[in-house]
């Protein structure tokens, strides 16, 4: 009986396999997702590199507005952090688990910061975004096909044109749509600004529907194109759906805190187990 008792007490562990494999499985899914993001981002980046011969990365804006680079960076971060969570849980490595929960805490605090600024100062955030990004995005519209598709999608979905308070007149900052431009598109706006871009009879997109719109006063222009800037439209859309957005944000925040709690629990259990071995 003495032997049996000793064998059973040696097999006893403070480390809950439920917590351990929960962290492992959760991070394994995110690890795969991070890998997928890296793959897609890399494919898009190489594709653009081959198409244009160069990718400009001179300042923060070039990185933020390059969709493939954003995917690569986000994928890389997710990949590394979830890998630390996976291996840390599986190998019961407290060092990796500490790194993992610290990263989650940093993400959590950053998200809280953005959320607070968005909820408390929506107009300040709007003008900040308008000042920072309007010129850059409008100017690079024709240079970056990914960004161009993204802007067209945004303008069609949110029924807006341009980015700032200027609305459709923002497009005057683009060298192709500028009124002094030698191009046929001068004084125009992209087709994605048009209220009826698709020709009903042929089902094709009329690319010329936005030509010469900048010459018209708002009352005339608003019959042909959306005239409000996208950042303002998105802000008012967010205000209308405030409870839904807040609910989702809260859900994400709480689940992050729960995972941090799990990682900390596992860490504590491993420490207990180690002290038991040393004693």
From TrEMBL:
S-S bridge residues: 161-179
Keywords linked to the UniProt accession: Cell junction, Cell membrane, Cytoplasm, Disulfide bond, Glycoprotein, Membrane, Transmembrane, Transmembrane helix
Positions of transmembrane segments: 21-45, 65-87, 99-121, 242-263
Main localization of the protein described in the UniProt heading: other
Any single Pfam family the record assigns to this protein: Tetraspanin
Biological processes, Gene Ontology terms: protein localization to plasma membrane; protein maturation; protein-containing complex assembly
Keyword hit for Protein biosynthesis: no
SUPFAM superfamilies: Tetraspanin (SSF48652)
Membrane topology classification: Multi-pass membrane protein
GO cellular component: adherens junction; cytoplasm; plasma membrane; pore complex
Gene3D superfamilies for this protein: Tetraspanin
Database matches in InterPro entries: Tetraspanin/Peripherin, Tetraspanin_animals, Tetraspanin_CS, Tetraspanin_EC2_sf
A molecular function GO annotation: enzyme binding
Localization per Swiss-Prot or TrEMBL: Cell junction, Adherens junction; Cell membrane; Cytoplasm; Membrane
Family indicated by similarity: Belongs to the tetraspanin (TM4SF) family.
Protein name from the UniProt record: Tetraspanin
Species per Swiss-Prot/TrEMBL record: Acromyrmex heyeri
